[in-house]
Write a structure and sequence with these properties.
- Belongs to the low molecular weight phosphotyrosine protein phosphatase family.
- It is an enzyme of class 3 (hydrolase).
- Keywords: Hydrolase, Protein phosphatase.
- With about 150 residues, this protein is of the alpha/beta class.
- Helices cover about 45% and strands about 15% of the residues.
- A four-stranded parallel sheet has the order 2-1-3-4, sandwiched between helices.
- The radius of gyration is 14 Å and the shape is globular.
- The chain starts with a strand and ends with a helix.
- It binds 4-nitrophenyl phosphate (4NP).
- The site of 4-nitrophenyl phosphate has 11 residues, from loops.
Length: about 150
């Protein structure tokens, strides 16, 4: 089993969309018994909240299920559980490096680092930009490459 954890600041915009998109890719690849997917937040700000209405609208428009999702902050067990911790921006990376047990720090990855022409870039935060569909498209440009990498590492 390979465990993939998507993390952003609030776990109501970017990481829930990443979770839903990646679960769909895993399902379409027939790998749902081998790859588990979850998401969480670096902050407790939105703890218990459903995805943002803008994220819900985009997920619904693309046929993705978000009905079970609620924001939650990352825990010590998440760092242990995850094989890949895929984050949305450099602030997430900084915050997670502060929180992570030393042996888990190497799991922390920046989502767009998987694309050679977007290395080091942040996933735009629709909390600020209100461009939920654009964020969805950026995630869709990167996540198949993550699935390829995870498949080839297994
Ligand atoms: P997310 O977006 O990290 O993509 O879920 C945000 C959600 C909430 C806040 C900021 C960003 N906030 O400040 O509460």
């Amino acid at each position: 089993m390979t465990n993939v954890l998507f993390v952003c600041l609030g776990n109501i915009c970017r990481s829930p969309m990443a979770e839903a998109i990646f679960k769909d890719l895993v399902l379409k690849a027939g790998l749902q018994d081998q790859i588990q997917v979850d998401s969480c937040a670096t902050s407790s700000e939105e703890d218990g909240h459903k995805p943002h209405p803008g994220a819900r609208k985009v997920m619904a428009a693309h046929g993705l299920d978000y009905s079970y999702m609620h924001s939650r902050p990352i825990t010590r067990q998440d760092f242990d559980w995850a094989d890949y911790i895929i984050t949305m921006d450099s602030q997430n990376v900084f915050n997670l490096n502060q929180m992570a047990p030393a042996q888990d720090r190497s799991k922390i990855q920046l989502c767009l680092d998987i694309l050679p022409d977007k290395r080091g870039q942040d996933i735009p935060d629709p909390w600020y930009t209100h461009r939920f569909e654009y964020t969805y498209q950026v995630l869709c440009s990167a996540l198949p490459a993550w699935l390829d990498k995870i498949k080839s590492a297994r």
